Amino acid sequence: MKKDLLILGAQWGDEGKGKIVDLLSANYQVVVRYQGGSNAGHTVVVGNEKFILHLLPTGILHNHTKGVIAQGMVVDLELLKAEIEELEKKGISVRERLIISDRAHLVMPYHKLLDALFERKSKIGTTLRGIGPSYMFKYGRKGIRMCDLEDKDRLYHLIKEDWEFVKDICEKVYCENHSIDIDRVYEETLMYYSYVKECISDVSKFLMENKDLSLLFEGAQGTMLDVDMGTYPYVTSSNASALGLPNGTGLSPKFFENTFFWAVSKAYTTRVGEGPFPTELFDEDGNMLRNRGKEYGSTTGRPRRCGWLDLVALKYAVDVNGLDGLILTKLDVLDTFEEVKVCVAYEYEGKEITRFPASLSLLEKVKPVYKVFKGWLKHTKGIKDPKDLPERAREYISFIEEYTGVPVVMLSTGPEREEYLWLRPLLEEVRL
Fold it and tell me: Where is the domain boundary, 230, 259, 288?
């Protein structure tokens, strides 16, 4: 029986999903992005070439795949055009293989203005790319969808109406005066639309009619940034967990009955921006993780906060997503540590907590309870055979499997496409 595959993030994003999706999509015909927008930054290294994709599905780097931007995404047409042009300059055809949902919402220039105003006030730690306000307009029934661009009169009316709303917020809430040339926004939107017009289609219809094709679904951000299940309000504006898959694609939950759900996790934990982080390190170990792991955001360039692996959070992600397996990245970053710790519980007022809490105020006060492993002090980068893994590294991986209840099916042993190691041959069709 055919098995489709979902790859998403199990932590606060930045787990290395881009490299994994690029690797596994070699054996898939269609790769689907279903949520988020240009706040994603999926990095892939192919030979001496480095690609950072924000909107396009990572699988588009393989010439045999079709890439889908589904309805759950919010799309900045200017950035999409630039991203397509960059790949096409490098000899990678894109528009012939790209399908964009006619129900996907747009990110408009005034959304970015609002993003900056909101961030100045609330300090959530957004990328300032207009993603949150675009989703806000979507759920406030003020959004502009791809299908609206065909009706020029309606488009102009929507832009004008939206700007009047934003202008009121600027002046009456923030006491600031801002101006936007509505005519210019209108003309530029139509210009960018003309560039991708032939790619726009009914995505859910396409997927239902082509269910016999092999499908890989690519999540952005990570489960702990999910707007409903993450560390709210320090989250992204979409369902970055598997919960976003049906509504983000326009497909029934029954469509995914034959889909494997895998998530990517680092061998330690990082996050960008504000919000609680129980295992965050402020000492030399934290600096070593950041420097060895090159922990700087691909979208923002911001240094990431680093800490030991939080298994309470990871087990929560396993449960929320109904995961079948984990893919572990950056194990080699831990190669030089004499001791490696994992968080197995939180302590609060003398009690142990083993279920990730919803309360932000509680999460900010917990202390991590650690299990300590002796470091393996041997290189794991580039290893190809599981037998070559140091015994202590295998013990570390086995403990993660035991605690979370799901197998670690693959290790990424470096940033390049060919640096990976299968641990469990669960799916012959994704084997390379």
Answer: 259
Report CA-CA distances (Å) from 371 to 283, 305, 343, 346. Answer: 18, 21, 6, 12
pLDDT tens-place string over residues 112-148: 999 888 888 777 667 778 899 999 999 999 999 999 9
What digits encode the pLDDT tens for the residues 289-303?
Answer: 999 999 987 666 779
Query: Is 388 labelled as part of a ligand binding site?
Result: no
Q: Any known ligand binding at 39?
A: yes
Taking CA atoms, 128 is separated from 77, 120, 424, in Å, by: 16, 10, 40
Tell me if residue 14 is catalytic. yes
At residue 211, the pLDDT reads: 86
Model pLDDT, residue 122: 73
Q: Which of 66, 105, 138, 341 is catalytic?
A: 138
Tokens describing residue 51 = 């690609």
Its pTM stands at 0.93
CATH code of the domain in which 165 resides: 1.10.300.10
Tokens of 312: 């309470």
Q: Does the annotation count 319 as an active-site position?
A: no
Active site residue 42: yes
